[in-house]
Every structure is written in structure tokens, then in C-alpha cells.
Design goal:
Blueprint: H1 2-13, E1 22-23, E2 29-33, H2 39-44, E3 62-67, E4 72-74, E5 80-85, E6 91-98, E7 103-105, E8 121-125, E9 131-141, E10 154-157, H3 158-193, H4 196-216, H5 219-222, H6 228-253, H7 261-283, H8 289-316, H9 320-343, H10 352-355, H11 357-399, H12 409-417, E11 426-433, H13 436-443, H14 445-462, E12 468-473, E13 476-482, H15 489-499, E14 510-517, H16 522-541, E15 547-549
Parallel strand pairs: 14-15
Antiparallel strand pairs: 1-10, 2-3, 3-9, 4-9, 5-8, 5-10, 6-7, 6-9, 11-13, 11-14, 12-13
Helix pairs in contact: 3-4, 3-11, 4-6, 4-11, 6-7, 6-8, 7-8, 8-9, 9-11, 13-14, 14-15
Length: about 550
């Protein structure tokens, strides 16, 4: 809300007018020296400056940049500002010369030139005195910058600069909001699902927000004494942190059997080397600064190329996840490579888009990766459901008697002994087909199988829904169900089986043994099964086709 009020107030104070003044002076002419020089004398000797060599890779104890032939009419109410991209130097000073020959130094130093949430730029307010500025001289002490002195320099009035910075502030808010919202959502997703690639995504988003906070200058709010050189190093560290998280994300995102391990390891090694160079820059920004810069930038390029190559190889090996990774990351990666080459001064050009490119690319990547995460979660859920269904099917096959469709002996006993809601007292019925061997001997095994199927069907149709039915082996069956004080089920089973007829016209009878008790462990199961089996033998010896009960209830 406060930002909205500020914006409205800005446009109320400054009425609408033509396009705000902005001048692109082009690259300055260059002079380097080992000792300090007098700015006034340098204004008088422009021939000492080299206007042909370009600004890239300039390094000396004192580096000077001269911009000539300007016509900046100074207005104390809306002074001009000299802005350029971040650079590494111990000190920087700006001098101006007016048309009447006066020389003045800009009141800003490197600390006051820092801006919060700018497009990666510092801004020096030029002297507010009246007159026309014709020449500007920039001095950088111990410059350590691949793109040279005052890269991306531009001249803007205070109003134009403020309007541009407000637009950039809105853009930072939008991009930061996108990344922050995706981070919160995916972290909640990780807490729920515990997939490693979601955690890697969250780590990358945290590094991305840290990189954006540093690059934008927002970090100066937290650390007011931070130098722009340290800020650049932190930005590089955050960028390589994002890339390292991307490498880890790729490893956990792609199917392990499709991932080219050596190529992935080389990509991770490049990220580690880059992170090490950034730490070295933070420890001592002057130590082999050009080598450290190149290591950092080329490490970024190597990681980006490695990510593409790894994902492409995984895709060629049949990885669907690798294909999705390529779709999500290819454009940001290619743009990131171009941005790294630009940062090394190998190509020229500057704009807000280029300056804010890393954060915009990372926000796009965060959004695309979030979509990839959602796809991968859906794929893993489908694979999990298929695996569960397959496991359930295999378990069903393993637990089922192939001929009758009833539980086999192992599955029946497992259920009896397994964890389940147990009634106070259970009833075990052990059933045996009478004279089954005679049927096999007289009519063959196919007739015997038909009898087993018919008996199983009769038992299944007669038994109550809560009964567990199994074939214990051969012609022996069993039922387990809650015990009832008066229960005619055993007799009904005998009548149902006696009435059943096989396709070949055969019919049989059964004998049943019944025992009641509590099944708490293997020992109690053996005890109640023994009692039911003894009752079954009494039925057999008593003439078959009948039911016998164990004399008393068995306790666990």
C-alpha cells in the first residue's frame, strides 16, 4: 500500500511530459596510471585518452574514463545522474567540467551511489550547480571488472531515474512474489510427500531469492556497510547456488537408470569449482581477481551446458523426466549462457532486460520447474498406484488357491494370526470331503478337480460374509468366523455340499469338525486347529456327512 501511495505521489508531483531525458554517452575513452593524476589537467589533455581500445578488461591502480562533447543543462531541481552497472573497485569518483571551464566533483561516493532494488546499477548524482556540463571524467581505483570502467553507462535526470527504478521495483516485487509463492507451495508439498527433488527445488528457490536480494541492492537494507564488490561476490555465490541446486534437482528428478552418472558428476564438479571461486572472492576480492572471475563465469557456462547435455542424454536413453526437464530448462539455460558470455565482456550491449536478466530467467525457470515438479509428482503417483495395484495383484495370486479361488493354507493361517479386530470368541470349522480318493481313483483327477470346485462354490455361497474361507490342502477346507451361541452353519454346509452336482453329475458329502476359542498367537492357533481336527475325525468315524464339536472352548 505504501508503494502505491509513493507511486501516485510521484506522478502527482511531476506532471506528465514527453519522454524523460536519457542520454547514452557510449563507452568512455580510457587512460590508466600507476599514480594519482589531477582531474583538471586531464580535462585539458583529452589526447592522452585512448578512444579505440574499448573498456573491457581495463585494470590498473587508477583507471580513468572520459566522456566528451556533452550538453547537459543542469537543473538544481532535477539534477542529472550518471549510472552504470555494478563493478568491482576500491573507490570511484566522478568529475564534471562545465562549458565555462569550471571543474566540480560529484558529491556521491560508492557507498551513497548504491541503490535499493535497482536494475543492478549504481547512481552518482552529478554536481547540482547551474550551467551546461560538457565533459565527465570517471576515476576507478584498483578496478577489477571484466567489462571495464563504468559498464553500461547512461545519463538520466533524477525524475527519469526514479521512474525507471519504480518500474524495476514493481518488477522485483512481481518476480520475488512468484518465486516466494512457489517456494512456500513446494515446501509444503515436500513436507507432505518427502520427494528429494522437491527439496532440491526449494533449495534452489531459496538461493534464487538470496541472489535476487543481493543483485537488486536490497541486501544493503540488511547490511548497510556492505561494499558493492562484496555484493557482486554474494550475487555470484547465489547464482551458482541456484545452479548447484539445479544439478541436484536433475539427479533426483530423472529416473536413476536413465541418468548418465559421469556426465552428471562432471556438471556437479563444475558447480563446486564455481562455488569455491565465489568463496575465494568473498575472502579476498583482489586475489587473482581476473582468474577468479573467469573461473566463476566459465563454471556457470559449464554447469549450464552440463545440465542440457545430461538431460538430453537421459532423454535419449528413454527418460520421460529428462524430456520434461529439457522443456522446462532449455530456454533459461541458453539465455543464461548468453548472459554469462556478456558478463565476461565477450559481447557488448546493455539494457534493463540484460541487467535484470538473471532474476527474470530464474523466475521463469522457477515457474517452469514448478510445473515440472507437479508433472513428476503426478507421474510418481501414477507409478506408485500401478506398483500398488501390481503388488496387490501379485499378493492376491500368491494368497489364492488357483483351482478353487479360495485362500490357500498360508494366507488363511496368516489371516488367523494377523493383526485384526478380533471377536471375543472365534469358531474354526475344518471340512473334509468324504471318500475323495475313491472319486479320483474311479473317475480321474479332472473329476476330482470338478468336485473340489463344486464344494468350494457351495461353501462360499453358504458361508456368511464375515467368514474367512480357505483350502488347507487336498480335499480339506476351513472357515474362521465369530462364534455364535446357536449356529446351524455347519449343518447347512453339509446339506449345501450334498446338493451340489459337478458337470459330470457327481455329488459328494463332507464331514465337519468345529472348535471354539481365542486365537492370539501361533500356539493358540495350533491348539484350536488340533481340537477342530480331532472333532473332524470323530465325524469321519461316526459315519461321515455329519458335524462334530470339540467338547469345550479353548482359551489363548
Amino acid at each position: 500500500m505504501r508503494l502505491v501511495i509513493t507511486t501516485l505521489a510521484l506522478f502527482a508531483v511531476f506532471p506528465a511530459q514527453a519522454a524523460p531525458p536519457r542520454i547514452d554517452p557510449g563507452p568512455p575513452c580510457i587512460l590508466t596510471s600507476a599514480t594519482p593524476l589531477d582531474p583538471g589537467a586531464l580535462f585539458e589533455r583529452p589526447e592522452r585518452f585512448d578512444c579505440a581500445r574499448g573498456t573491457a578488461h581495463v585494470s590498473a591502480p587508477h583507471s580513468w574514463g572520459l566522456v566528451r562533447n556533452l550538453k547537459l543543462t543542469s537543473d538544481p531541481t532535477d539534477p542529472w545522474e550518471l549510472r552504470h552497472e555494478y563493478s568491482q573497485a576500491d573507490a570511484e569518483a566522478i568529475y564534471v567540467r562545465y562549458a565555462d571551464g569550471r571543474v566540480a566533483q560529484a558529491p556521491s561516493d560508492r557507498a551513497s551511489a548504491r541503490r535499493y532494488f535497482s536494475p543492478g546499477m549504481v547512481s552518482y548524482a552529478l554536481p547540482p550547480g547551474r550551467g551546461t556540463i560538457t565533459d565527465i571524467l570517471i576515476r576507478a581505483d584498483n578496478l577489477r571488472n571484466q567489462r571495464g570502467i563504468a559498464p553500461g553507462m547512461e545519463l538520466k535526470t533524477g525524475r527519469a531515474a526514479l521512474e525507471g527504478d519504480l518500474l524495476v521495483l514493481w518488477l522485483y516485487g512481481l518476480l520475488g512474489g512468484i518465486v516466494g509463492a512457489l517456494l512456500i507451495y513446494n515446501f509444503a508439498l515436500f513436507v507432505a510427500l518427502r520427494y528429494t527433488f522437491i527439496l532440491c527445488y526449494c533449495l534452489g528457490a531459496v538461493a534464487m531469492l538470496g541472489m535476487g536480494l543481493s543483485w537488486s541492492g536490497g541486501i544493503f537494507l540488511l547490511f548497510p556497510n556492505l561494499d558493492t564488490t562484496e555484493q557482486i561476490s554474494l550475487t555470484m555465490l547465489g547464482t551458482l547456488g541456484v545452479l548447484a541446486a539445479g544439478v541436484l534437482f536433475l539427479r533426483s528428478f530423472v529416473e536413476p537408470d536413465r541418468l548418465p552418472q559421469r556426465l552428471w558428476a562432471a556438471t556437479m564438479a563444475a558447480a563446486v569449482v564455481g562455488l569455491g571461486s565465489c568463496v575465494m572472492r568473498l575472502v579476498d576480492s583482489r586475489f587473482a581477481w581476473e582468474a577468479m572471475d573467469r573461473i566463476s563465469y566459465w563454471s556457470m557456462v559449464a554447469v549450464l551446458v552440463g545440465l542440457i547435455a545430461t538431460a538430453a542424454t537421459a532423454t535419449l536413453r528413454g527418460s520421460r523426466s529428462g524430456r520434461i526437464y529439457l522443456l522446462a530448462w532449455s530456454a533459461p539455460i541458453l539465455a543464461g549462457i548468453a548472459r554469462s558470455v556478456w558478463a565476461m565482456g565477450l559481447v557488448g550491449g546493455t539494457s534493463v532486460v540484460i541487467a535484470m536478466g538473471p532474476l527474470m530467467l530464474m523466475a521463469i525457470e522457477a515457474l517452469m520447474s514448478a510445473l515440472a515438479v507437479s508433472w513428476r509428482v503426478g507421474q510418481l503417483r501414477t507409478e506408485r498406484d500401478e506398483a500398488r495395484a501390481s503388488h496387490s495383484k501379485l499378493r492376491e495370486v500368491a494368497d489364492t488357491d488357483a483351482l478353487t479361488g479360495l485362500l490357500n493354507r498360508r494366507a488363511f493361517i496368516d489371516h488367523a494370526l494377523g493383526v485384526r479386530a478380533r471377536p471375543p470368541r472365534e469358531r474354526l470349522l475344518v471340512i473334509d470331503i468324504d471318500e475323495f480318493k475313491r472319486i479320483n481313483d474311479r473317475h480321474g483327477h479332472q473329476a476330482g478337480d470338478d468336485v473340489l470346485v463344486a464344494v468350494a462354490a457351495a461353501i462360499r455361497e453358504t458361508a456368511p460374509p464375515e467368514a474367512v474361507i480357505g483350502r488347507l490342502g487336498g480335499e480339506e477346507f476351513a472357515l474362521l468366523l465369530p462364534a455364535e451361541p446357536v449356529d446351524a452353519l455347519p449343518e447347512r454346509l453339509c446339506r449345501a455340499v450334498e446338493a451340489a452336482v459337478t458337470p459330470a453329475g457327481h455329488s459328494v458329502t463332507i464331514s465337519v469338525g468345529v472348535a471354539d476359542g481365542v486365537i492370539a498367537d501361533d500356539a493358540s492357533w495350533r491348539l484350536i486347529y488340533y481340537a477342530a481336527d480331532q472333532a473332524l475325525y470323530r465325524s469321519k468315524n461316526g459315519g461321515r456327512n455329519r458335524v462334530s464339536h470339540a467338547p469345550h472352548t479353548l482359551a489363548a
